[in-house]
Specification:
Blueprint: E1 13-19, H1 27-46, E2 55-61, H2 66-78, E3 83-86, H3 90-103, E4 107-109, E5 125-127, H4 132-145, E6 150-155, H5 159-172, E7 178-183, H6 189-199, E8 203-207, H7 214-222, E9 231-233, H8 242-248, E10 257-259, H9 267-280, H10 286-304, E11 313-315, E12 318-320, E13 331-332, E14 339-344, E15 347-356
């Protein structure tokens, strides 16, 4: 027997959605995240909603601004949302998590990876994206396996980038590696190339804002004959999105990055991928899958009135449940699958899986 649709007479169950949709936020990531969230909500409603009540997403653009995001949390709480979901930028998600915890409002972080999402353990906050220390450790394993012991990072000042540099250093140094840091507050792109030559590093990682200065740094390195053998990497995932290829063309290939997908999607993942492709007009990123999975989790929580540690649902990328992970103060799915991939230089629209963890 089919499940009846939600009743129009029942008040909607409202969820506050926080996504970056305008600059300086990473708007393309926000669009993919929102597409996954909206697809998930539509399917929840087609399946009868939440105990017969329709699920409604109330969307707010954070534009990568923590203060704007906190104001949105307060507004959404005043509108009566039962939970918050989303956000891509770690510094924004951290501000959202702190405010949600203070209000006692559940927040499911879909895509931000900073380990210290909260200062103290929280019962109100959960996350499906893998913690930065886990994903970036996999990236460090890839670097070591590819023979890169001396690594340079071009870094902007940010708690997220500083955390990433620390993780890389902690992983590489015990294996005889080293990390030299270029402070992008003091260096222009041409100076980065000179410093890279002087450092004798075999890899340069982009721990900087996107599109700038990341795009300019890649162009400069690619055009410098002294640096032809240097690997350019972007662990934060910038090359995942079509805009990267549009801005860099062939220069954007062979830039390894992290993405959170399994080697092969199951039946649910294949179906959702097709639906997301129709919504986005192109291949969905892992961020779109994170959005869909986040709604699947929240629907389960709302239907059963369960707390985070009692969640057990099948997502597009595997079975999702939450636990306490040492050093992380939120309820964490440990772990979403992790890959290091790049765009194939022979066919930049195709991704190559270089390492899995």
């Amino acid at each position: 027997m089919s499940t009846p649709p939600p009743s129009a007479s029942r008040p909607a169950v409202r969820i506050g959605v926080l996504v970056p949709l305008t600059r300086p936020g990473w708007a393309e990531a926000g669009q993919h995240l929102l597409a996954g969230l909206e697809l998930g909500a539509r399917e929840v409603n087609e399946g009868g909603g939440i105990a017969g009540a329709p699920l409604e997403l109330v969307v707010r653009d954070t534009a990568a601004d923590p203060k704007r995001a906190v104001a949105a949390v307060d507004e959404l709480a005043g509108l009566g949302v039962v939970a918050l979901v989303g956000e891509y930028h770690s510094v924004v998600a951290r501000a959202v998590a702190a405010r949600a915890d203070a209000l006692g409002l559940p927040f499911l972080c879909s895509s931000a990876v900073l380990d210290a999402l909260t200062d103290e353990p929280s019962e109100w906050v959960a996350r499906i994206a893998p913690a930065q220390s886990h994903g970036w450790r996999v990236y460090a394993e890839f670097l070591l396996g590819a023979g890169h012991r001396r690594v340079a990072v071009a870094a902007d000042p940010s708690v997220y980038w500083a955390s990433g540099a620390r993780i890389l250093r902690n992983c590489l140094v015990p294996h005889g590696g080293s990390v030299v840091e270029f402070d992008m507050r003091a260096l222009g792109t041409e100076a980065v190339c000179d410093a890279l030559v002087d450092s004798r590093a075999t890899a340069l990682l982009l721990l900087v804002g996107y599109p700038e200065p990341a795009v300019s740094i890649v162009k400069c390195v690619r055009r410098d004959p002294r640096l032809g053998e240097v690997l350019v990497g972007a662990p934060a995932g910038q090359p995942e999105f079509a805009e990267w290829g549009g801005l860099l063309g062939d220069d954007g290939a062979s830039v390894p990055f992290l993405r959170y997908l399994p080697e092969r999607l199951g039946a649910l993942g294949v179906r959702v991928e097709a639906a997301l492709r129709g919504r986005l007009g192109g291949a969905p990123s892992f961020v779109a899958f994170e959005g869909y999975d986040a709604v699947v989790v929240l629907a389960d929580v709302l239907r059963s009135a369960a707390s985070w540690p009692h969640v057990a649902v099948e997502g597009t990328r595997g079975a999702i449940s939450f636990s306490r992970v040492p050093g992380i103060g939120v309820w964490q799915w440990a772990w979403a699958p992790v890959q290091v991939v790049d765009r194939d230089p022979a066919e930049p629209g195709r991704f190559r899986v270089l390492h899995t963890g």
